[in-house]
Design a protein that fits this description.
Structural class of chain A: alpha+beta
Largest sheet of chain A: 4 strands, mixed
Structural class of chain B: mainly alpha
Strand content of chain A: 25-35%
Number of strands of chain B: 2
Helix content of chain A: 25-40%
Oligomer: heterodimer
Strand content of chain B: under 5%
Strand order of the largest sheet of chain B: 1-2
Number of domains of chain B: 1
Distance between the termini of chain A: 21 Å
Radius of gyration of chain A: 11 Å
Shape of chain B: globular
Largest interface: A-B, 21 and 30 residues
Number of helices of chain B: 14
């Protein structure tokens, strides 16, 4: 599992870091912490276009996104 | 996915309609909304510089910020944060203003100028894309300005309160002393000679238009830099759809209203020095990527609780005033040309130095 702490980072750094992890570690689960809605939406959108599913847990004003790579058949 | 596009396109339509309405009410041609110009006019009204022709405490700016604040609070997205390289952000805000004053408009006005047939703005768009491409290059090589952290609520309410004070000043217009401030220009705002509404109604309507624009922009995350940046970075066309919608709707409106005049020469508040239109907007694009969004988005983020964005807004206002005081506007003087080139170099250096910061 790859963990990314993207709390407090300006747009679009959470997405840039997530994308870098997807490229560096294809097929691995990625967990990202962000602290704003826009970052959560952008990462979710990126995940879907890259074939990941996203589980999102909200804790007050922060989000934990767990991206699962598509199961390879 | 589809709902995202509906939100962004809907926001683009509302922003373009608001811009058309504001020109009808008295704002200058192709300038229904221009964040950089309006911050410049507010700075002039407060006596910070001497370009007083259009000096006016433009209520659209407080309106957008307060609309964004209302939307962020209503959706529980309001989050007071600050502390990500504020001095650097102030400087980047100033540099965005220098580029915008060289070109004569922020990205919002660039879109509206294109929609009015001003081909100089197409040259500006080419520079804008080039500047954003440099910024994207810096982003993928590890650029960041460090983390913002959670602050007390009061930190995020400072700029909204100052904006409310501007609205009160615009409505009351106290004569502090015979020679101002508050200064009022001679043209280019609702309530001046030849416009369909009086000054009081002008304040109300401009504020209301700003609030509506701020609400939809906050919901849609509308950003003129973000559109091109995200397309270059992750091939996402979402925010670009917002940009395209603003141009398309404003263009249609201009055609219907007979306000579309294609060409380079004699465009309203524009110049034909192609190199400086290109480089001015390249500077705006690059510095905005480093800030994390265009001037419009910085205003919305400031309303959503970002003290860092508030600092960028203040930097842009000061930068616009200095651009006029130092004869940088239109990059017509040697000082203007030197300022644009120097700011481009400094922005690249800032982008280069702030890479892979250890946390």
């Amino acid at each position: 599992m790859i963990a990314i702490d993207a709390m407090g980072l300006s747009c679009p750094l959470p997405v840039v870091r997530t994308m870098a992890s997807m490229t560096a570690h294809p097929g691995e689960e990625i967990v990202i912490h962000v602290d704003n809605e826009a970052a959560k939406e952008n990462i979710t959108r990126l995940a879907h276009t890259k074939g990941y599913t996203a589980d999102i847990v909200r804790d007050q004003l922060t989000y934990k996104l767990t991206l699962h790579p598509a199961v390879r058949g | 996915m589809k709902r995202d596009y509906v939100t962004v396109i809907g926001a683009g339509i509302i922003v373009a309609l608001a811009a058309l309405l504001l020109v009808y009410l008295g704002n200058p041609a192709n300038t229904g909304l221009c964040i950089a110009c309006f911050e410049r006019d507010i700075a002039a009204a407060l006596g910070l510089h001497d370009f007083r022709q259009m000096a006016w405490l433009r209520p659209e700016i407080p309106g957008i910020l307060l609309g964004a604040l209302a939307a962020a609070v209503a959706t529980r997205e309001f989050r007071p944060t600050a502390g990500s390289a504020p001095a650097t952000r102030f400087l980047l805000g100033m540099m965005v203003a220098v580029g915008a004053m060289a070109f004569l408009g922020c990205p919002t006005r660039m879109a509206l100028r294109i929609a009015g047939g001003d081909l100089n703005a197409v040259v500006g768009l080419a520079g804008f894309v080039a500047g954003i491409a440099i910024g994207v290059r810096l982003l993928v090589t590890g650029f960041n300005l460090g983390r913002a952290s959670t602050q007390w609520r009061i930190e995020a309410l400072i700029l909204p309160v100052l904006m409310l004070a501007l609205v009160v000043l615009a409505a009351v217009r106290p004569m502090f002393k015979p020679a101002g401030p508050i200064f009022m220009g001679t043209t280019g705002y609702p309530g001046c000679a030849g416009t369909p509404v009086g000054i009081g109604m002008g304040v109300v309507l401009c504020l209301a238009a700003g609030v509506v624009v701020g609400i939809v922009a906050q919901r849609a995350r509308l950003c003129f830099v973000g559109g091109i940046r995200d397309f270059l970075l992750i091939r996402s066309g979402l925010l670009l759809a917002g940009f395209g919608t603003v141009v398309a709707v404003a263009l249609t409106g201009n055609l219907v209203l007979g306000r579309f005049h294609p060409g380079f020469a004699n465009q309203p508040m524009a110049h034909t020095a192609h190199a400086w239109n290109f480089l001015g907007m390249a500077l705006v694009g690059l510095a905005s990527v480093l800030l994390g969004g265009c001037p419009f988005r910085q205003l919305v983020l400031a309303g959503s609780g970002s003290g860092d964005a508030a600092v960028a807004v203040l930097g842009m206002t000061v930068g616009a005033a200095l651009a006029h005081n130092c004869n940088i506007v239109k990059a017509a003087s040697p000082y203007g040309k030197a300022a644009v080139v120097a700011c481009l170099c400094v922005a690249i250096v800032i982008g280069w130095i702030n890479r892979d910061r250890q946390e």
